[in-house]
Each structure stands twice: as structure tokens, then as C-alpha cells.
What does this fold into?
Amino acid sequence: MNRDIRILGVALSPLAGPEDALAGIRGNIDAQRKTYAVAVNPEKICAAQNDPRLRDVLNAADLRLCDGIGAALAARLLYGQALPRVTGVSLFFRLVAAAAENGWRIFLLGASKESNDAACRKLTADHPALRIAGHRDGYFEDDSAVIDQINASGADVLFVALGSPRQEFWIAEHRERIEAPFCMGIGGTLDVVSGKAKWAPALFRKTGTEWLYRLIREPRRWRRQLALPRFAWRVLKARLTPTPPSRQSC
Ligand code: UDP
It folds into this structure.
């Protein structure tokens, strides 16, 4: 498997699984090659339909993870291809473990100050060898000062938890100036680490129904999750019409 899999105009990286993603990232960090990853789910694919800038930012990422079960099912339906899920949150935990093992310095940007501080404490407790080069909350106005802080820290890996799509735009806009070889948007992951939010239990993760768990816990997000049926409908339509799938939209 080596060609991107294009779903409604968004190209997913044809990764064999989380280890494959990690191996690629490791190679880039070792070579000090600047790259960034985005986790792509049906919600982002749908948002990208009405926002060409978001679509371009997603497609410009070096690694586009198949984060949602919906995207994996769409790959099977449209191309008959199995595309393993690599969720952003699970890759985050693998990367943190790899950072502790390899001495990579990490920077954690985003979430509230309390959540960010608590996440740092938890990660250090879980991985005593982890080198947190720097961290700060995600409520700031001066991008330039934050980038200076990240660069001064000498971080190898920058995690950006500003929520979507802000974090994707933020990374793409500043990728050139940010010196850390690897950057990745991690949404609400720091809230999961700090305990402010709960990671979906294993049953939901295994069945790819984290969205259902989140809907049950945070019903106010129902409007955002309307993207899921819209996405399913568009994928079905793409499957049934002769128009190339990449031209279909939500
Ligand atoms: N956040 C932030 N700065 C902002 C807006 C949001 O740091 O200006 C953080 C927020 O505190 C939370 C995360 O971004 O920790 C967004 O979490 P959510 O689960 O909503 O992520 P999404 O589903 O949008 O990826």
C-alpha cells in the first residue's frame, strides 16, 4: 500500500498501522526533517468540503492519519481498500513513550493552564525519563512570542492542542518558523491526560465508536456530530455515482 487514499478530496496516508506511522516520524526526527501530522476524521473531511483552505492544509500535511472509523469504512467502500485506523490520541501516547526512550524533547502547547500543567505532571510521573522542554496553555494572542518560546526550548516534538480546525491552521501557518522537526495537532488529548476529560473506554475505541461515547458525555456537541450522517451520505453518493470520489462534496 503506497498511494494516498483520497476521500471526498482529502488524501489519507496509506499507513499500515500505528507502528508504521511511528517509524516514519522517527526517521524524520532523526534526520531533523521538518514535518507535521494531522488526524483526519469525517468531521474534518466534511468541514473541508466548504473550506478549501482547510482542505489544502490537511492535504499539505506530511502525515494524514485515518483517525475515524468513518474514514476507514469510506476507504473500503470507495476503493475496496483496508485502511487501518491510527488515532491521534493513540499516536500521541506512543510518541510520548518513544520520546522518553529516545531522549526527544517535547513541547506541549494548548488546553487551559490547569489542564496543561496537570498533563505535564501526569506524563512525567508515567515516564520519568521524559524531557518536557516546555509547555504553555492554549489561550494566547501573541503567536510570535509563543513560537519564540517553542524555539528557545529546543523541542524536537511539538504537540498542539488548540482544537480543530484552529490547531491545523496554526501549525500550517507557522510550520516554517517553528524549528521542532515534528509537529502534530492533538485536539483535546491534554484534557484526557490531565483527567479533565475521559478517554473513551476500550469497548468504544475497539469498535470505533468514540464519537458515540463523546456524544453521550457531551450532548451539546450534537451539532458538530451531524457531520457523521452527512459524511456517510456523501460517501454513499460517491460510491453510487460515476463522478470521481474526490470531486464529491459534503
Ligand atoms: N483550546 C485551547 N485554546 C483555544 C481553544 C481551545 O487551548 O483557544 C483547547 C481546549 O482547552 C481543549 C482543546 O483545545 O483542551 C480542544 O479540545 P476538543 O476536544 O474540543 O478538540 P477537537 O474535538 O476540536 O479536536
Remarks:
- The beta strands are 5-7, 10-12, 35-40, 63-66, 105-110, 131-136, 157-161, 182-185.
- Residues 110-112, 138-139, 161-164, 187-188, 190-191 surround uridine-5'-diphosphate (CB under 6 Å).
- The first helix runs from residue 18 to 30.
- The chain has 13 helices and eight strands.
